[in-house]
Design goal:
The longest helix has 17 residues. A three-stranded antiparallel beta sheet has the order 1-3-2. 52% of the residues lie in helices and 10% in strands. It is mainly alpha-helical and 112 residues long. The protein folds into two domains: 37 residues, no CATH class; 50 residues. It has six helices and three strands; from the N terminus they run αααβααββα. The protein is globular and about 45 Å long.
């Protein structure tokens, strides 16, 4: 008796075509779907919109020369922009918010 392949066995048992789809490797479909979504997002991009980079606490510390404790103290009193929650245990600041804060700083220390 000749040995039959998987397709013959499945089709002979009256199983739907969707079962055959599940048995085949999907790598070609996934890669083509990924390309399609990337092309779609690139084509649907609005040129007037510029994405704002998100800075983690280390980048904010580096750009402001402030310790994270000082940053949170300033957030509490309202003199520093609040972060965005980007995960359960992760926050980030918009680059434009930090830049605006830096631009609004008073130059020098006025005593008197």
């Amino acid at each position: 008796m000749a040995r039959s392949n998987r397709r013959d066995v499945v089709e002979s048992e009256g199983v739907k075509r969707s079962v055959l789809e599940r048995l085949r490797p999907r790598t070609a479909k996934v890669n083509s779907a990924r390309r399609t979504s990337e092309e779609t997002s690139a084509a649907g991009r609005n040129d007037s919109f510029t994405a704002d980079r998100l800075l983690d606490k280390w980048a904010v510390e580096e750009r402001t020369s402030l310790d994270i404790t000082t940053i949170y103290r300033k957030i509490k009193i309202g003199t520093f922009p609040a972060p965005l929650r980007v995960g359960l245990r992760r926050v980030a600041w918009r680059e434009s918010d930090v830049a605006a804060w830096q631009n609004n700083l008073v130059v020098g220390v006025g005593r008197g």
